[in-house]
Write a structure and sequence with these properties.
There is one protein chain. The protein is an alpha/beta fold. The chain has a single domain, classed as Peptidase S8/S53 domain (Rossmann fold). Helix content is 24%, strand content 19%. The protein has twelve helices and 20 strands. The strands form five sheets. Strands 1, 5, 6, 7, 8, 10, 12, 13 and 16 form a nine-stranded mixed β-sheet that branches. A four-stranded mixed β-sheet has the order 3-18-17-4. α4 runs parallel beside α5, α6 (187-199) packs parallel to α8 and α9 crosses α12. The two termini are 19 Å apart. Residues 1-42, 125-132, 136-146, 179-185 and 386-395 have low confidence and may be disordered.
């Protein structure tokens, strides 16, 4: 793997952009093709501004906002990988690529504040092409394609939490210089950048926190097949690829009308999460003690963790906005032919187009904390400028300080961090892990390697479309469940050998 750790506590995070000749200072120089505009949406579900200052907010401040907030140390305990980090397994020598629009002009400073606040290794950033300023436009100005401030929050989430999970892994931020909202045009730009990294052996794990409803690809299979060469090359080159499953439950939109896209009229999933060569990550509410990451707390907010809505006092329940369901493009992959007992695989989308595959690819494969009600802390600089009027013209986010952030955008980079640790421990890249995940799912190790989330459904309360239930075994809300990393990683290494 090209790239290196600088000293024992230093790594480089390369900020690249499509059309730039170099993405990382030590890497083979790729030439990235110029392609059409990307119109995709970040899988950033919700956020709340908690407070200013370099010090993280107290849990009391988070509770006052109706949330519980997780620090890196608490997440290390919650998913049982603190012991792996303490043993020196921190992803060193491995590179995670996170792919976002625009980049962020403040990411160097924001990451420095985040690292200092939580005692993480301080990172040096190679700024090959700076992101644009995060000045937000007026909320009613055009299509919203220039919401750099929202993408800045996405960038901060992806970078800070991939780093928090695998503190000594190299993090490469691949930024496309385009305006992006829901749709399909321009996806090629992101896919070309990923493929360049893969073919130049510059990356071990890729995290994608974006997507578009499959129904928005009006030409269906033909359009998606043109885009997915990067995933074929990733499988051939032992690169693991993750994608957020989305934050709309079973509800997604077409790309038209531009200013108010119409809802796809059947339960749907998003691509690239629906691609069989991608590991799709759904979401949960994490109801453990937010200060320690241990035990179950049914007293603190949000309501979804309290006894009335969590009668079993489960440590995790299915997030109602977790993207999931069945592809209309891809048939059921071989690795989903065997699922744990009690799984609720339904076969295909009810009410979907006549051309859909049935039985179909089920989404997601796995899950992780995603609700902002039980969200992770993110530091972001979003100065309250006057360029868009008083108070940024009402645009949000528009504050410098600490946010609690949710969405499957939080889930994907953390899973990527866990696999970077697994790659480092194994001394090789695990590559395409889906067959191994399902192999573990039907083994005696399933109950110790995964927390089987079996409460709630992903019916979006803002939609009339039905959701799918979270059940024992695999389901279309949380997949196989969430990881007990200390148990799962050795078994995943063995299953991919």
């Amino acid at each position: 793997m090209t790239g290196s750790i600088v000293g024992s506590w230093l790594r480089r995070l390369a900020i690249g952009a499509i059309g730039v000749l170099s993405l990382t200072a030590q890497a083979t120089t790729p030439v990235l093709p110029s392609v059409s505009q990307v119109l995709v949406r970040p899988a950033l579900g919700d956020w709340a501004y908690i407070g200013a200052g370099a010090n993280p907010p107290s849990e009391a401040a988070c509770n006052a906002a109706g949330r519980r907030c997780f620090t890196p140390a608490a997440m290390h305990n919650a998913y049982d990988y603190a012991k792996l980090l303490a043993a020196g397994n921190q992803g060193q020598g491995k590179t995670i690529a996170v792919v976002d629009s625009f980049g962020a002009s403040t990411i160097r400073e924001d990451l420095g504040v985040f690292d200092k606040a939580f005692g993480l290794p301080i990172c040096d950033i190679v700024h090959l092409q700076g992101g644009p300023p995060p000045t937000p436009p007026p909320p009613n100005n055009g299509t919203g394609q220039e919401n750099h401030n929202l993408w800045d929050l996405e960038v901060a989430l992806d970078v800070e939490w991939a780093h928090a999970t695998a503190p000594l892994a190299n993090i490469m931020l691949v930024a496309t210089p385009t305006a992006e909202t829901l749709g399909v045009q321009g996806f090629q730009q992101m896919m070309n950048s990923e493929d360049t990294l893969i073919l130049n052996h510059q990356v071990d794990v890729i995290s994608q926190s974006f997507g578009s409803g499959e129904g928005a690809f009006h030409s269906g299979t033909a359009s998606i097949k043109q885009l997915r060469q990067a995933f074929i090359d990733a499988q051939a080159n032992k690169v693991t690829v993750f994608a957020s499953s989305g934050d709309g439950g079973t509800s997604n939109n077409f790309k038209e009308p531009v200013k108010k896209p119409a809802e796809i009229p059947y339960p749907s999933v998003i691509w690239p999460a629906s691609d069989p060569l991608v590991t799709a990550v759904g979401g949960t509410y994490l109801c453990v003690n937010a200060s320690t990451g241990l035990g179950v707390d049914t007293v603190s907010p949000p309501a979804r963790c309290r006894t009335a809505l969590n009668p079993d006092s489960s440590r995790e329940t299915g997030w109602v906005f977790s993207g999931g369901g069945y592809s209309i493009v891809f048939g059921k992959p071989d690795y989903q032919n065997s699922m744990p007992a009690g799984s609720s695989y339904a076969g295909c989308t009810s009410g979907g187009p006549s051309s859909q595959s049935c039985p179909a690819r089920g989404v997601p494969d796995v899950a992780y904390q995603a609700s902002s009600g039980t969200g992770v802390l993110v530091y972001l600089s979003e100065p309250n400028t006057t360029a868009s009027g008083t108070g940024c013209g009402g645009a949000s986010p528009c504050s410098t300080g600490w946010f609690v952030v949710g969405g499957t955008s939080a889930s994907s980079p953390q899973w990527a961090g866990l696999v970077a640790i697994a790659d480092q421990i194994a001394g090789r890249d695990l590559g395409f892990i889906n067959p191994a995940l399902y192999q573990i799912g039907v083994s005696a190790k399933y109950s110790s390697d995964f927390f089987d989330v079996h409460t709630n459904s992903n019916h979006n309360p803002n939609s009339t479309l039905p959701g799918y239930p979270s059940t024992t075994g695999w389901d279309a809300v949380t997949g196989l469940g969430t990881p007990d990393a200390a148990n799962l990683i050795p078994d995943l290494i063995a299953a991919t050998s």
